[in-house]
Amino acid sequence: MNTTTTTRTVDREQCERCVHYHMCQGTAAADQIPGQRIRVARHDSLYHLGDLVDNSIYSIRSGSFKIVGAGAARPEQIVGFALAPEFIALNALGQTVHQSSAVALEDSEVCRITWQRQAFKGRRQPLQRVSLHALMSAELRRSQQQALMTRNTQAGQRLAALMLSLSEHHAARGYAASAFRLPMSHGDIANYLGVTAECVSRLILHFKQQGILELRRHDVELHDMEALRSLVQDCTARKAA
Asked: Which of 11, 93, 155, 232 has a CA that sits 20 to 30 A from residue 163's CA?
């Protein structure tokens, strides 16, 4: 994987329009920008598996990433996807080296924030502390959801869970929950689900024939959200039993 990143300066007005501005506010001197903006070209890496951790976390300003680790059976295994305005590299905190790589699915831009400076601010201000706790809770939930998906044995259920997750992501940010663009390829989805690309194509065709969803290139429309939820809930109920 290549690394092609471009760092650029950002004026304070741009920072103030960011949805995460409250996380950074006050973590730098009055005449300085708290974060550092980095552009990452499509297919290039923000950081690599094995890179030294520099106590930075990254807020995705635009674009999306796939998080790639090393599995026992596959040298490169996608363990998650991250879309703007989510944070990445939270799982590296407290580690010596990164346990995964962050690869841009499209031309993307992130804001690098120094964790130590922000955590110090969080100890002094309640709002900052709540935001820090929310970040870590979100990362924990994501890890738990990934563990549940890994245990699911039916590829269709895993695909349904992924579509619901993407739908909820868009809905939470004021976008349509039933129509959105997939930034990842069929091959990426297959790698993430642990199946072949051909299996993903068959599942999408099956879901289309069932009237559940339709995919045109990268544009997906969810026609039956309840059917997707039922697939996921049925699997969860069996695991609980």
From this structure: 93
Answer yes or no: is 147 within a domain.
no
Q: For the chain, what is the largest distance between any 2 Cα atoms, rounded to a whole number of angstroms?
A: 58
Angle at the Cα of 212 (from 208 to 214), degrees rounded to 5? Answer: 45
How distant, in Å, are the alpha carbons of 180, 227, 237, 238 from that of 241?
34, 21, 6, 5
Q: What is the mean pLDDT of the chain?
A: 80
Tell me which residue of 164, 171, 174 sits closest to 226, measured CA to CA: 164
For the chain, report the end-to-end CA distance as a whole number of angstroms: 42
Q: What are the E-state strand segments in 41-118? A: 45-47, 56-62, 64-69, 77-83, 87-88, 101-104, 108-114
Yes or no: say if 63 and 181 are a contact pair by the CB < 8 Å rule.
no
Q: What is the pLDDT, as a whole number, of residue 31?
A: 46
Shared domain for 213 and 168, answered yes or no, is yes
Q: From CA 37, how far away is CA 151, in angstroms rounded?
A: 37
Instruction: Quickly tell me which residue has 């259920």 as its tokens.
Output: 157
Domain tally, the chain: 2
Domain range holding 91? Answer: 5-138
Average pLDDT over residues 57-67: 93
Total length of the chain? 241
pLDDT tens digits, 85-96: 888 998 887 789
